[in-house]
Amino acid sequence: LPRARQRYVLSPERLEGVHRGATIRLPKEAAHHVARVVRLREGELIAVTDGGGRSFLVRLRRVDARAVEGEVLGPEYPEGEGRDPEAPVAVDLAFALLKGDRSETVLALATEIGVRRFRPFLSARTVVRPEGEARRRREERFRAVVREAVELSGRTHLSPVEPIASFADVLASFSSYAAVFVPYELAAASHGGVYPHLLEVYRTLPPAALYGPLLLVIGPEGGFAPEEAEAARHAGAHLVSLGPRILRSETAAVYAVSLLLSEEAFLSARPSGEVS
Ligand code: SAH
Q1: How far apart are CA 235 and CA 233, in angstroms?
Q2: Cα 93 to Cα 254: distance, rounded to the nearest angstrom
Q3: Is the CB of 184 under 6 A from ligand 1?
Q4: Residue 21 carries which DSSP code?
Q5: Which atom of ligand 1 is nearest to the CA of 242?
Q6: Does residue 70 line the site of ligand 1, with CB under 6 A?
Q7: Per-residue pLDDT tens digits for 146-159
Q8: 18-32 tens-digit pLDDT
């Protein structure tokens, strides 16, 4: 099967009504990347996606300083071939902002693994609290990181990154999920093991809930305050353990996301049109 050398997320408008045989012209940034950074040539294949689940294989027909154009060969993942890279389990990740570039690490890795939507938030013990312009720049950077991870991993869904919210906002959204999991390190076996493991709870969900949407909520470096854990439980979340070792927030996020998304291999039927 032909494979794309590079992939680009384009705006949905640019891919509207695109069909086999159509010519598409790449926007400036992607064109620059093709011609100058990776130096592809006429005849080579790229893939373009609208970030909303549609993606096309494109054969380059023109690569020069003024324009990069190609012919659409067809869908990149033809239906029925079982190559759709999007997970059948819808997992959203809410995570407390982390110091340095650790939030970006979480976003990049969790996008590759298949998270559907990101919801950064500030909680009682969150250390980094950007305001105004710094906050907007941070959110922009988050979206750029996710986009790059989508392009690298061959996904067709550009996972949205919501504006940085409060923990209260996250709590208020619990009812729109089939299940909410709040990994809480005080739930770990070393602290008495009073809470069950994430997978133990996931596997006892009713069959329809296995596909989600599921929400994982990961705390900051200092963890959740006990009142926050209690509020989450009260709002309907499952407080769960990720095992007997304390993980750093970014490890906990990636590990928890991996556990839930690894279950896709065991779910037989795929509901259609699940990713929104
Ligand atoms: N303040 C804590 C560590 C917090 S770990 C301490 O130093 O003891 C940061 C986040 O990762 C937590 O909020 C939790 O969501 C998650 N986490 C880490 N290890 C975990 C575990 N073993 N079980 C459940 N959640 C864990």
Answers
A1: 5
A2: 10
A3: yes
A4: T
A5: 23
A6: no
A7: 999 999 999 999 99
A8: 999 999 999 999 999
User: Measured between alpha carbons, how far is 77 from 55 in angstroms, rounded to an integer?
Assistant: 7
- Name the percent of the chain lying above pLDDT 70: 94
User: How many Å lie between the centroid of ligand 1 and the Cα of residue 207?
Assistant: 28
- pLDDT at position 273 is 42
Name the nearest CA neighbour of 13 among 45, 62, 71, 52. Answer: 52
> In degrees rounded to 5, what are phi and psi of residue 153?
-95, 0
- Whether 63 has a pLDDT exceeding 60, the answer reads yes
Of ligand 1's listed atoms, the one at least distance from the Cα of 244 is 22
Surface-to-core class of residue 215, CB atoms within 10 Å of its CB (0-12 exposed, 13-18 middle, 19+ buried):
buried
Q: What is the pLDDT of residues 214-237, one digit of tens each?
A: 999 999 999 999 999 999 999 999
Q: How many CB atoms lie within 10 A of CB 79?
A: 9
User: Which atom of ligand 1 is closest in space to residue 243's alpha carbon?
Assistant: 22
Q: pTM to 2 decimals?
A: 0.92
Indicate if ligand 1 lies below 6 Å from the C-beta of 95. no
Choose which residue among 93, 127, 182, 185 to substitute to test ligand 1 binding: the one with the highest number of ligand atoms within 8 A of its C-beta. 185
Strands 68-75 and 23-25: antiparallel
What separation in Å is there between the alpha carbon of 218 and the centre of ligand 1? Answer: 8
Binding site membership of 183 for ligand 1 (Cβ less than 6 Å): yes
Contact status, residue 164 vs residue 120, Cβ threshold 8 Å: yes
Distance 107 CA to ligand 1 centre (A): 18
- At residue 137, does pLDDT exceed 90? yes
